[in-house]
Amino acid sequence: VEHLCVRAVDWRMQRDGLPGLPSKHTYTNAQVFNKMPADKKILVEVISDVICPWCWIGKRNLESAITQSGLPVDVQWRPFLLRPSMPPEGVLKPPASASNPRVGFRLKSKGEAVGINFTGACERTPFTVPAHALLKYASEHEPGRQNALQEVLFRQYFTDGVYPGGDNLRLAAIEAGLDPEKAIAYAQREEVHAEIKEEALQNSASGVSGVPFFIVNGKPVFSGAQPVETILHALRQAAAAS
């Protein structure tokens, strides 16, 4: 699948000694995903990681599809860890060079087409569990702001070159309109970090090997930064079936 970020390791093997899933999407446990909400809004769940550039492009395409559809849609962001073994301080990136650019031409052009400036300016590959914890806070306590927070986190890392941790997460919370004191206190809790890791593990065990991964009304539909037309078709199908 094109326009997809694939995890670096199968961390289930590290934790449980389980054989890894093949690098394809076999939806073996779709019942873990949420079901159609009672108010009949379409629920789109996006399994994503903050360091996945195609997830940001997929977000822009999803938002365009929602606008074009005119349908009532709720979007929920769910965790995936592309680098599950990353230390909390992250890892220093190698210097950019002609043979090893941080942002390739294809990604750069695809981003520009949807108004995204990928700069590769952040010097470290991040540990993303704290950012996911902040997104979890927004989902549970200020759900109307989670999508805005996801946009801020993408922009901070991919455009501004800001590492998603520490005081930078507080600034992201403020920019997204969250209560920063409550949000950061929640996002720093070790039990929340454990929940993030477990949910990411569950998503992997359900057949997700790359992101963005889209679930519409509880049904896995596709992965990758799909074009607007593909997402629009899925939304209309969901509306017709509800």
Largest sheet: 4 strands, mixed
Strands ordered across the widest β-sheet: 3-2-7-8
The number of distinct helices, counting runs of at least 4 residues, comes to 9
CATH architecture: 3-Layer(aba) Sandwich
Low-confidence stretches: 9-38
Helix coverage percent: 40-55%
CATH class division: Alpha Beta
Alpha-beta content class: alpha+beta
Looking at the structure, the CATH topology is Glutaredoxin
Shape: globular
Mean pLDDT: 88
Give me the Rg, rounded: 17 Å
Number of beta-strand segments: 8
Strand content: 5-15%
For CATH, the homologous superfamily is named as: Glutaredoxin
How many domains? The number is: 1
GO molecular function, one term: oxidoreductase activity
Protein name: DSBA-like thioredoxin domain-containing protein
Domain DSBA-like thioredoxin: 44-235
Pfam family, one: DSBA
Question: What's the arrangement of secondary structure elements?
Answer:
Layout: E1 5-6, H1 11-16, E2 42-48, H2 53-69, E3 73-79, E4 91-92, H3 105-113, E5 124-125, H4 129-141, H5 146-158, H6 167-175, H7 180-187, H8 190-205, E6 210-211, E7 213-216, E8 219-223, H9 228-241
Parallel strand pairs: 2-3
Antiparallel strand pairs: 1-6, 2-7, 4-5, 7-8
Helix pairs in contact: 2-9, 4-5, 4-7, 4-8, 5-6, 6-7
Structure notes:
This is DSBA-like thioredoxin domain-containing protein. GO terms for molecular function: oxidoreductase activity. Residues 44-235 form the DSBA-like thioredoxin domain. The model is unreliable at 9-38 (pLDDT under 50). This protein has helices at residues 11-16, 53-69, 105-113, 129-141, 146-158, 167-175, 180-187, 190-205, 228-241; strands spanning 5-6, 42-48, 73-79, 91-92, 124-125, 210-211, 213-216, 219-223. The protein contains nine helices and eight strands. Strands 3-2-7-8 form a four-stranded mixed sheet. Strands 1-6 form a two-stranded antiparallel ribbon. It has one domain: Glutaredoxin (3-Layer(aba) Sandwich). Helix 2 crosses helix 9 (228-241) and helix 4 (129-141) crosses helix 7 (180-187).
